[in-house]
Amino acid sequence: MKHIFLTLSLFILTTCIRADEGMWLPQFLKALNIEDMKRNGFKLTAEQLYSINRISMKDGVALFGGGCTAEVISKNGLLLTNHHCGYGAISALSTVDKNHLKQGFFAKSPADELPCKGLSVSFVKSIVDVSLIILNQAEAFTSEQQRDSVIKTHMAAYESQKKTEGKQGFVRGFYYGRVFY
User: Fold this and answer.
1) pTM for this model (two decimals)
2) Domain boundaries along the sequence of the chain
């Protein structure tokens, strides 16, 4: 009896679940997601979230240390992030006498702030589909290793080209390596 009840409960619960979460790419919000978001009470426009030509949320949310998000909360660049994201930097600034992990730290003025050497913070300027560039000639190879090698070479070349233009570009694969931004 318990098995029947459990099976029936799982069936009822799973048929009621809406799977509309997932990876929403900012450049497609206006076309794909904003109407659903508004129906659910969202107040901002798609342009307020992501715009290449105007100030938007993308200008206030940063990539912190290469893998976490951070939010800008002041005109002077003060950031908030999760504790585990800054743990390494806090640990590096700690000493036996001043254990910032246990005792915390408060800078009373900008002059008292501690610089975190090697820590980077990046902002998105634009997200561009570079799939044609990255996948150029990669589909000709039948071996997965050869295809991956061509893709990695093209990604490195594109990122290097951006550096020579005075920009910092990152290429990332999406949808199991079918699309690159």
Assistant:
1) 0.68
2) 60-122, 131-180
Q: What is the pLDDT of residue 25?
A: 86
DSSP state, 52?
S
Q: How far apart are CA 41 and CA 34, in angstroms?
A: 11
Cα-based angle 67, 72, 76 (whole degrees, multiple of 5): 125
CA gap 158, 138 in Å, rounded? 15
What is the pLDDT at residue 76?
86
Give the residue among 79, 73, 91 at the shortest CA–CA distance from 120: 79
Buried/exposed 47-86: b ≥16 CB within 10 Å, e otherwise: bebbbeeeebebeeebebbeeeebebeeeeeeeebeeebb
- Distance CA(18)–CA(150), nearest Å, equals 39
101 touches 87 (CB < 8 A): yes
Please name which of 91, 71, 90 lies closest in space to residue 81, comparing C-alpha atoms. 71
Q: Tell me the torsion sign for CA atoms 73, 104, 101, 91.
A: positive
Strand 79-81 with 61-64, pairing:
unpaired
Q: Which residues contact 130 (CB under 8 A, 6 or more apart)?
A: 158, 171, 180, 181
